[in-house]
Amino acid sequence: MTAGYLLVTVAALVANAGIAAADLARARFVLANSAEVGVPESWLPRLAALKAAGAGGLLLGLLGVPVVGTAAAIGLVLFYLGAMAAHLRARVLYNLAFPGLYLALAAAALALGLATGR
Description:
Elements: H1 3-24, H2 28-37, H3 44-62, H4 66-89, H5 97-115
Helix pairs in contact: 1-3, 1-5, 3-4, 4-5
C-alpha cells in the first residue's frame, strides 16, 4: 500500500463519514443546500446511509478487502456525479466545489487503488 493511496483513501473515508453524520444530524447547512438543489429532506437519511456505506467500504478496502474498497470508491464516484448533476440542474453553482471535492477524493481513491492493485 502506498502512502498516497493511504492518505487519499483515509481523507475520502473521513470526509464521507463526516458528511453522513451532518446529514443524519440535519445540520443547518445540509438542510439549506438540499432545499436549494431540490433534494427533499426525507431523502437525507438514505443519502447519509449511502455516504456512510461508502466510507465503511473504503475502510474495508484499507483493512484488506480490496474488492469492497474498489466497489465503495466506484459507488462514491457515481454518487457525487449525481450530486454534481443536481447542482447543475438547479443552477446552484456557487457551492459546486463541495460535491466536486468529494468527487475528486473518491475518484483519486479509486484511481490510486486500481493503480496499486488494491
